[in-house]
Specification:
This protein is an alpha+beta fold. The chain is built from eight helices and seven strands, in the order βααββαββααββααα. It has two domains: 112 residues, Alpha-Beta Plaits (2-Layer Sandwich); 52 residues.
Length: 181
């Protein structure tokens, strides 16, 4: 499993009362700090997420479900790319194996210096890796395809929620079987 880093932007800012609920929730992602959040201010809440899952899409789904499950009426409206990645995460984003990524990076001047190293695992700047790969002649997207798909799905779900679209209509539109909440 991989630790995926990304940001969930929520439909509103959290209040102090919301923060009190989150501080005592038994939801595992909030309880272990995998999802952290901001309170107050004029902008919608931004949750920094570091979630372990087989794919980034599953990580976003788990974090989104946690947000929706703890505070009724609170939901994600956008997903943003995490800037810090392990070599394995960078390889998946670049559609390469970690060894292929290292080899390609060597032809582009080498991997950037790690941002930090913990327990023997280096964490790199994704924009830095993108720059090195592009210098090596490899075109690579700034965000992994799974994260872009998660963002599109989260945005569509947020819009459907805001419009009050019933699950039965969403099933007809998408062909997906949805559960009633």
């Amino acid at each position: 499993m991989t630790d995926w880093e990304f940001t969930l932007v929520l439909n509103r800012q959290l209040t102090d009362d919301d923060a009190e609920v989150l501080a005592v929730t038994d939801d595992p992602l909030f309880a272990d700090g995998s999802v952290s959040y901001t309170v107050g201010g004029d902008e919608p809440c931004r949750c920094a997420c570091n979630v372990e899952a087989p794919t980034v899409l599953e990580a976003v789904a788990r974090a989104s479900a946690s947000v929706r499950g703890v505070l009724p009426g609170l939901y994600p409206v956008r997903v943003e790319n995490g800037a810090a990645v392990t070599l394995a995460e960078a390889a998946e984003r670049a559609h390469r194996t970690p060894q292929e990524l290292s080899d390609l990076a060597e032809s582009g001047g080498g991997l950037p210096e790690p941002l930090w190293v913990t327990e023997g695992a280096a964490t790199y700047s994704w924009p830095g890796i993108v720059a090195v790969l592009r210098a090596a002649g490899v075109e690579v997207a700034n965000a992994p395809r799974g994260l872009r798909a998660a963002d599109l799905l989260v945005r569509a779900a947020a819009e459907a929620t805001a419009l009050g679209v019933p699950a039965s209509v969403l099933e007809l539109l998408t062909g997906w079987r949805l559960r009633e909440d």
